[in-house]
Design goal:
There is one protein chain. The protein is of the alpha/beta class. It has helices spanning about 40-45, 45-55, 95-105, 120-130, 160-170, 185-200, 225-240, 250-260, 275-280, 290-300, 315, 345-350, 350-365, and strands spanning about 1-5, 30-35, 60-65, 80-85, 110-115, 135, 150, 210, 240-245, 265-270, 285-290, 305-310, 325. The longest helix has 15 residues, at about 225-240. The chain is globular. Residues about 5-20 and about 365-374 have low confidence and may be disordered.
Amino acid sequence: MSSVNLRPVHPKQAILKSTIMSDRRLPNIRKILIIRNDGIGDLLNSTPAIAMLRQNYVDAEITVLVQPLNAPILVGNSDVDRVLIFDRANEHRRLRDRLRFYRSVRRERYDLAIAMRTASWCNFAAFLSGAKYRLGRYQKRFKSTLTHPWRGRYKKGKSHEVNRNFDLIELICDGTRHQRPVLNLLDDEIGGARQLLTEWGIAPNDFLVGIHPGGSSFDKRWPEENYAQVADALVREYGAKILILRGPDEAELERNLQNAMQSKPIVHPPRSIRELAALIARCHLFVCNDSGPMHIAAALGVRTVAIFGPTDHVAWRPLSDESTIVRRDMPCWPCSAHNCKIGWECTKKLAVDTVWNRIEEWTQDKTETKEYKR
């Protein structure tokens, strides 16, 4: 069983037990398992709820079950004690390996298991954990195994994912909803990003703009040639230095964007999610699609312009005062994006001028950049 022990940035003892008093709290909770084996943004938008859980169960050991993709997000998170990795594509691909994993989870004797991701497997895993209390949403299969089901339903365009996670956790918790996602960079990661920028000739007072043209699916991706026009305009109008960032499977998107640009960008495929986050943190502006890096930028407080297509922008917008979204309102929204019959016009035909105008609004009075202080 792949497991990582995390060294909290701040000791749990710093949280005063007397700050939380509620009849909702469950008794005798020593070990908690949170199941969140999905995307980067999904996990980041769970961190405020995890923080509330920590405030309510100060002395409990909190373990988060994740997949290899999103596991690095929790490094340096003082609300989490352990990260448990379920790798269904590799280490736990075979049935016997999965059974071994389930037995090892059960041996941990968790008191509380939370299926924070709404999925049948998560409900099943919570049941297999043997936890006395099992929390989740009453929607998918194995819902009858939950001892504390949340029975509500959401309509598109009504509630952010962060608040949905709070709705679930508040079945057994109380406290103030602090909505900012949590992502803590380590000192060596900050220093590594600073060193890279120095090697690329980027000065602290240069207007550095990060561009990420990727996204988890085709319908979320604004065309690369459109990004190229925006990047060239930023260079021409603001003297910006452009840094193109991408994921491991997005090399073609990077090449298409670079080839469509008239100006010369810096191109860097980050070696890890942590390096990606550290480089985003150094940007004075980040332009991207609805994606995991968008949520990373929001958690780091980086000024962000995010392009949305058919995704529920109310549920998944970057949750930061330093972020704004651009989208083309369509009469067919809310929709089933994967069955679009008009070629995802909401994304693919979003005008360059519309995005550029929002960028100009968002960068107004921000072009005199100062040395990054984080």
